[in-house]
Each structure stands twice: as structure tokens, then as C-alpha cells.
Amino acid sequence: MLSQENRIKAALYLNYFVFAILLNSVGIVILKAQKNYGVDEIQASTLELFKDMPIAIVSFLVASFLPRLGYKKAMLIGLGIVTFACLGMYFANSFWAAKLLFMSVGIAFALIKVSVYATIGLVTNNKSEHNSLMSSIEGFFMFGITFAYFLFPWFNDESIPDSWLNVYPLLALLSALSFLFLYFSKFDKEAEIPGANLSEDFFQMLRLLGRMLVLVFVISAFLFVMIEQGIMTWLPTFNERVLDIPENLAIMMTSILFISLGIGRFLAGFLVKKISWYWILVACLFLSMSMVLFVLPRAINAEISNVNSLLDIPLIGYAFPIVGLFLAPIYPLINSVILTALPNKLHSPMTGLIIIFSAIGGTLGSRLIGYLFKNVGAESAFSYTIIPMIVLLICLTLLKRLSDSAETEMT
Known about the structure:
- The chain is built from 18 helices and no strands.
- The chain has helices at residues 4-23, 26-36, 41-62, 66-69, 71-92, 95-123, 127-155, 167-183, 198-208, 212-241, 247-271, 277-301, 315-319, 323-327, 330-340, 347-375, 378-381, 386-410.
- The chain is globular, with a radius of gyration of 21 Å.
- It starts with a helix and ends with a helix.
């Protein structure tokens, strides 16, 4: 039998896995919406907006209030919302249902992520445990994304237009099982409430931005997500245009990035128990910069032709996506650093800030790399990621000094 804390941890893993599949299915649904619902590219692209905007808005509005509601209740509400949204998508089978689906997923994920991040602080006993669990959960999220890229094609039959919808009863069942597992898990650890009333709870989140430690952190998180999202979004286009790989294979190769991100985060979860988070991240950034400076040019200059399967792609074609292995530890570890430097009662509002600035960084990163693809060429676009990597390295050094000072003050 699992202990109470292990049951809670298992629930966190399961919740994150479900939402990894749902959040990252948007590209697949955009493709199917154009084919099945007769919408054009611009209309279909609004699904991304319906997903991302609720995440940012709900995180901003409710993150500081969730300790009053309770993290378990918030996660149950999120899982309940997506269970019915998945069933609605299956039965309604329309573009408006797809919009409602991703709006529901966005709202629910805001509740889930704030609750998961805040709960990690309640079920870990020290900084290294917090770093390890944060890295492992974020790694599990990446494997959920990879699973999505195989799950949807498994249900899809191009000769039967609506066959892909059969994935949604399965996702509804998975969400319902997650709901039941969490519901029957004893969950009596709740954080202190940030303020004396709702308005004070909200302003506690805004006041956090006045702390130098938090300011340096949000810049670091913004820079990292800008780098990661830019590469994740445009890697399929890079594979097709620059490496001259057929479209379907170019998309499948993107899963290598997600797998390497997942492995990197799990490895970081073990390493951080023995090595300082700072030195792990410094090493990761230098290795990432080496990939951009030395491996990427070799991949661009490689002569890749007559590709009909993944086996036809030379090893150098697989090399650059391995950058995910080195980028992977950065996001969960810096999140853990900032959360462990603050009292538990501020973890929920701080997570709201994490989500908001991550969303802004991701959106800007995708647009900047897209701009570079168009104006300087697909061959050179990724090389510009070296600039935010250098700035991030400086920010990590400042974050280390400030977090050490904050830790000293708390003891």
C-alpha cells in the first residue's frame, strides 16, 4: 500500500500526464478542424488562443485564492471540467465544441498547475527533495506529450473522417480515473492562506514582483520558455525546410525533442540530490550553447536526401533535438529554487506568476523564431537562441546569490 504522501505524489504525476496529452493535441485538432469542419488556417489557429488565454487569465485571477478553496478541490474541479469537455467534443463533433474543449482545458490546467506546484512544497521536506520531485513531474509531463503524438494517430483513420474522435472517450475515462484516484486519496495538508481576505490574497501576488529575487526569477523563466517554445514550435519546420525531410517524418522527429526533455528532467531529479542546482544548470547551458554553435551547423550542412523512413535519416539529423536533454533541467529547477526560497503560504500566488510569465515567454519565443525564419532564413534562425542563453546564464548567477540570501534569512 502507498503511504499518504506517495498517493498524493502519484495523483500529481497522473494529473500532469492527462493534461500533457490534452494541451499538446491542439496542433492535431487544428489539422483535423481544417479537414473536417471546413475552417481555414486563420480560423483554426484560434484554437491555440482558446487554450493559452484561459491559462494566463485564470492563473492571474485565482492563483492567490486557491489556498482558501483547497488544492485537492481545485484539482478535482479541473479534472471534472476536462472529463465533461472530452465527452462534449466526442458527441458535439464541431468546431465550436473544439473551442469549448480547449477553453476548458486551459481553465482546468491553470487550476491543476497552481495546485500541483503548491502541493509539491507540502509533500517534500527539504530543498533537494523539492528540486527532485519538481524535475520528475515536469519530466513525466514531457512523456505525456510524446504519448499524445502516438495516441491520436492510433485512433485516426483517414478513410473514416470522424474516427479520430474515438480518442476522447478514452481521455474522458483517463480524466475520470484521475478524479477518483485523487478523490479517495487522503489529502489533509493545506498551505497557509496568504492574506487576511480575498483582496489581500491577490495583492500578495502583485507584491511579490517587488522582490529582487522574484524579479530575477521571472526574467529567467521568461528567457527559458522563450528558448524552449521557440525550438519546440519551429523544429518540424526546420526538419522539413533545412534537412529536407518529408512532412510526416519531420513531425515524428519532433518527438525526439520531447523524449530528450523528459529524460533530462528525470536525470536532473536524481542529480540534484548530489550536486548543487546551480552547477547543474551552468553545465546544461554551456552544453546547450555548444549544441547551437557546433552541432547545429553540421546538421544544416549535412547532405540528407532520399528519405522515406526514419531509418534513412543520418545520425547528424537526430543530433540537434538532443539539445532538449540539456535544456530540460532548467525550468523545473529554477521553479523549485524560487518556491523553496519563499514561505509555503506564498507558493500559490508565486505559481500564478510562473504561469503568466511562462505563457508570455512562450508566445514571444514562437513569434520571434517565426520572424527569424521568415527574415533571416530557416538555416540561421535557431543560432540566435545563443543570445538569450547567455543572458539566462547571467540571471542564474544572480538568482543563486539572491536565493542563498533569502534562505539565510528564513533560517
